[in-house]
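Session log. Operator J.P. requested a structure for one protein chain; no other inputs attached. Running the standard single-chain path with token output.
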Amino acid sequence: MQPQQQRFWPDPQPLVERLGRDFFRQLPETPGVYLMHGAANIVLYVGKARSLRHRLGSYRVANPERMKRRTLRLLRLVEHIAWEECSDESEAIRREAELLLSLKPRFNRAGVWQGPKRFLAWRSQHDGLELAVMDSLEDGWNGAGPFRAQAMHIYRALVRLLWCRFHPDAGLAGMPAGWFGCILSPQMDAVFKALADASRRKLLDQLFKNNGQTLSELCEHLDMTRQAVTKHLVLLEEAKLVTVVWRGREKLHYLNPVPLHEIYERWIGKYEGHRLQALSDLKKGLEATKTKKE
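Structure written below.
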């Protein structure tokens, strides 16, 4: 057990001083959403909780070593807290999303602005099929949606599928330059740059084992600061090796194997797969024999 440094003064408890200890004792242990109000009853922050008592109880002590400065500023401004109970966590997530869009609290970042509606559109032309992403469907176009931010990802995936369907021998590496899904030179440089660092490769390994992790969960497996892990994730996102999905206030990171597959198609796919597999099996066998002898 690591020794802890004794403090001359206890950490501040602005919410306890302002709301009282009885406030935290009366909180229900049920899922719900909470609204932190400031002066003039302005909503400063909206959050969701699996247990309202546990979540709001975590705000009692304003420890500067454990909390972000933004959170410490928030706690100093809170005048009172309201809450709504929900039947389950899923309902709490939906209710939080509604409140974020309607109230746009000052201390919330994710979920306060709704992206534009985008449709995946197509129409038949005399020389083939035309695809597009539109904010609204125009005359003469068929469409599906709205998909919002996911529309472009669906569009790119559909282009790849159609290319592979009509040009099975060419593969993704044979797509014309400029088509979506074909790794162009800047993108390819970003992929190799991201893979060149051992820490970033370890991050990808962690996502391969358990996809959809938060920043805190990823930090548990690396011997580096939270800020350093964030910088590595930014490079992986720029290389499109990692994609993010917001679920309420949580930012989940997912492994995206498409760039690696496209590199495989470009330089390896044209060779005979069974020969490469045989060489790989031989290498693993020799390494295993060497390990046993040692």
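Operator note: Strands lie at 32-37, 43-49, 80-85, 119-125, 128-134, 142-144, 242-247, 250-255.
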